[in-house]
Amino acid sequence: MMKIRRGAAVIFSALVFFGLMAALPAQAQSGAQSGAQSAAQSVNKAAKRDVFEVRDVAVDVTAETAAKAREKALAQGEREAFRRLVTRLTLSPEQDGGEVSLPQDISTLVKDFQVLEEKTSAVRYLATLVYRFKPRLVRKYFIDSYMAFAETPSKPVLVLPVFQAAGARLLFDDPNPWRDAWAVRPDTGGLVPMVLPKGDLADISLIGAEQAVDGDMQRLSAVARRYGAGDTLVVQAIQGMDSRGLATLEVFMTRYGTAQVEQTVVKSYASRAGETLSGLLRRAADDLARRVEDNWKRDNLLEFGRQAVIAVRLSIGGLGEWVGLKRILAGIAVIRRADPVLLSRGEVVVNLHYIGDPDQLSLALEQEDLILSRENGEWIITPAAGAVGIPEKKS
User: 131 has which bridge partners?
Assistant: First the structure.
């Protein structure tokens, strides 16, 4: 008989067990504001994840005894978790065509793990696990293995899938099989969280297919704000047919926003033998999502051989704001250290020790709603437009 335990939240120490609404366009209806705050909060909550934590690792092992099944399952789980971590942080070419090279003793890289749910019988062990890895040792493994990697998580990206067939462009209209293909993609836990709009009346009042394809920045920004997204990704898929009578796709993908230089990627896809239109669309969506991830990683690769320091001035509302800001800076991958050199009730001057170049530092700060700029010969950091400010440390 299977024993079931849910939400056990049991954390095992690795040392013991292993030895995150501005104004809308004038044309938008007031209903666009309804639910906007909750939608943005939901997206940001999902985006604020520890990049060294891998969740929802499912294991199911049968062995001679429950104890042996559990032992094998946990070993299997840690390997799967580390494989996902490598996929999350490294470029696709580094992953050897999908085959991720794993170290022999992964347990030394594990900080701890958590059992979310487990079932046991006399010879079988099933569980859903969460693994957390040691950042310093994982970085050392990547460096020793000559693997380029990134750690900076992007703000959520709002995906607007526009499907064009027989001259008609569809975004929120049904049916839109291209939107369906993006909707069924699982959350891979990558550095770029991708979200789809609900397609409700508020969204429809904000933007349509033609406006999305034309790159209407006012409307793109408005719908992105509704979901707390940093950028919008317009993916226009045009359905065609080849000489065999099979479906083809020509896709134009453009990312709009502040995170990257605006660029359009054009990609063509042909149906494989026996592949349905829905299968072709899903394959194209998966491939494009990987490209978005890899483009982000390339812009944020950690360059340990390039280290610099700049003095930055920040206005603060008190000591509590400084403590909150210091916590944010400490969590940014490219920042190695933040040393205060002048601290008063209204401002602080900090020496920021970082790796990479100033553009990379600026991009990383933007993901935390902080803008790095240069005024009158000095560097300053200010909250991004629409940001609520720097959070104080919670007591």
Answer: 54, 113
